[in-house]
Amino acid sequence: MTEYPTSQEGPQPVASGGGTDEPGHGKAPIAATEAVRTHAPGTGPEPGGSAAAASDARAARSAAGAGGGAGLPRPRRNAAASGEVPAAAEPGRGAARPRPGASALDASAGAAGHDGPAEAPRPRGGSDDMTDDGDGPPAGTITGGDGGAGRHGGGGGAVPSGEATAARREGDRLRFVGAATRRIARGIDLDEIVLGLCRATVPTFSDAILVYLRDPLPVGDERPVGPVVLRLRRTDRLRPIDDLTDISSTIGAGMDLAGAAGATGELDFSQLPLVGPQGDLPAAELCEIRPGGALAEVLRGVRPVFGSSAAARAALPELLGVDHPLPRGNRAVLAPLRGRRRVIGAAVFLRSPERPAFEQNDLLVAAQLATHTALGIDKAVLYGREAYIADELQRTMLPDSLPQPTGVRLASRYLPAAETARVGGDWYDAIPLPGSRVALVVGDVMGHSMTSAAIMGQLRTTAQTLAQLDLPPAEVLHHLDEQAQRLGSDRMATCLYAVYDPVAHRITIANAGHPPPVLLHLGGRAEVLRVPPGAPIGVGGVDFEAVELDAPAGGTLLLYTDGLVESRLRDVWTGIEQLRERLATTAQLTGLDHPPPLEALCDDVLDMLGPGDRDDDIALLAARFDGIAPSDVAYWFLDPEETAPGRARRFARRALARWGLEELEDSLELLVSEVVTNAVRYAERPVTLRLLRTDVLRCEVGDDSPQLPRQRRARDTDEGGRGLFLVNRMARRWGATRLSSGKVVWFELSLPGTPERR
């Protein structure tokens, strides 16, 4: 949704010497207000007036005060408000610089229009320095006509020469452009840069602004594949008329808005988009640039153009909509936004009829603002693309979701080192293994950069491949060490590799320089497991040692990287002890008879990080050991003989009868017979048959032949080749895994009363 921010967000003006003040966003400049107070419509000084004209103006004001204006409060006059220049002041030195008039950047003090409530008069005297309040361009904007605030001087004040006035105007213009570009350059992302342009130009340079950007924005040297479309990204404007009703009370009794409007006699905002009584938005949201059209020609020309020019009058309806009213005269500027390689949008600056129109020098200002904005948008888009690539790289390097192996529940967390460094070398993984086992892996490559993430991805892929070979944990680390050395001499990482067996309720752990895991028992006791520390991966020439430990049901194993326990404020062992105490405290709060929820436990562990504790990436993997009860496991050895399939069917019927699953007898007997027959055909050693009852019925058949079965379509004349076809059609899931000593073929059947899932 397009935002329509009011122009009342800037800091309020603070009185300073010499009338050099920073106006608040949307406040009326003093020069315009004093003109409304002291001049009747049509009685302002003529442009280029002399001291005699100024004397006539003072006489007119005196006459008004003595006559019909006697009932009005006499406004206080000072050098900043009235434009008087002290007699001792020299032109261009120490003279009070004019307050921003009704035209802000281009208004003279004699203009009758205004764009906000009047400000309190400023004290006399002071400097002529220009400052930036940090939220927009300075208030000392330049006057655009030949007359300046000094032409309204009285009391014998010196009148600046034309050269001094022009020099001051040019100096003010340069200072305005400098402050505005600094405001734009402060933005980092796209919205901040566009907001900076709007805040810097409204109301100082224009009364309203519309910023159109290409949708989507091109990145780098990408070529557009479709029609070029501009979308209204943001607008900014003066406040609606309803917010200006308090002007009459500020000006004084007997004076209404019509009098405040100056020579126009009324507040006519009908020609100014975005500034209507309802604050509506008549401008179009989308605009498709037609090749060869008027808008395309203006954008191709790159330079800003007045709205009254023939090219702009043909291009603006195409941009803003055919029903959009076009401002009369030079009250609109259409500025293309050109990045490093192509036009990426357009900005439309608008002025109300109550202030002087744009002049030729304003095109140079608009060009400067458009150029800085476009280059900033280019940088923001490139930064956003880099952040997107980093996010995508990190997301693809880590698992999208964790598996749901039998007998264990898993949860994980990952936090980058900082928002500006979204990639790193930390990773975690959970890999299902044959025999209902699962491999738990946590690793950390040195650094948190794109290079670290790339190395991490290669090591993670290698670990997954080695895990599928069912190698022992120490052997997996040995091969990872060799792979790290092949990647480079300085490619080092720490890694912890564990294999959990839910049937045996045991876990085997091998460590390569990684922090030890923490085991939270069911009763609330947390202990740091004693595992051999080992050397980091990539050192080379070292042996890795594995240790086998009990994995009690209901226990929770926490694997993590050193970013969780080590920082500049604490060493790693202090952090490990704090982690152990945090787990024990959490278990005490949830009760000793049941373990804490796994997801909540991960969040609670991360809450232990305080300010300043995030120096590195954090990867966290939590495993809740449920195990498989011995009563839910049936295991047999079958000799590779012709009678093996028949014996396998009898064993399967007995197990189903013990578990009350007789409904599955026909399906299980058929599938067991097919798989065992295929195993006996190639095996030389006894074949293993195991049935597991969990949320599904799982059958595993292992043999010593490394050749994996492949499903193929049998011809009508073939006597075999249909066994795996039957398994694929009748089983819920099935698969085959190669082991170091052979292979395992497994399939699953849904239990009665549970929905079928493929």
Automatic annotation (TrEMBL):
PANTHER family according to UniProt: STAGE II SPORULATION PROTEIN E, STAGE II SPORULATION PROTEIN E-RELATED
Organism: Streptomyces nojiriensis
Keywords: Hydrolase
Residue ranges with Gly residues bias: 142-159
Protein name according to UniProt: PPM-type phosphatase domain-containing protein
Bias-annotated ranges (Polar residues): 1-10
Pfam families linked: HATPase_c_2, SpoIIE
InterPro entries linked: Bact_Sigma-Reg (IPR052016), GAF-like_dom_sf (IPR029016), HATPase_C_sf (IPR036890), HATPase_dom (IPR003594), PPM-type-like_dom_sf (IPR036457), PPM-type_phosphatase-like_dom (IPR001932)
Residues of the PPM-type phosphatase domain: 408-625
Classification of source organism: Bacteria, Bacillati, Actinomycetota, Actinomycetes, Kitasatosporales
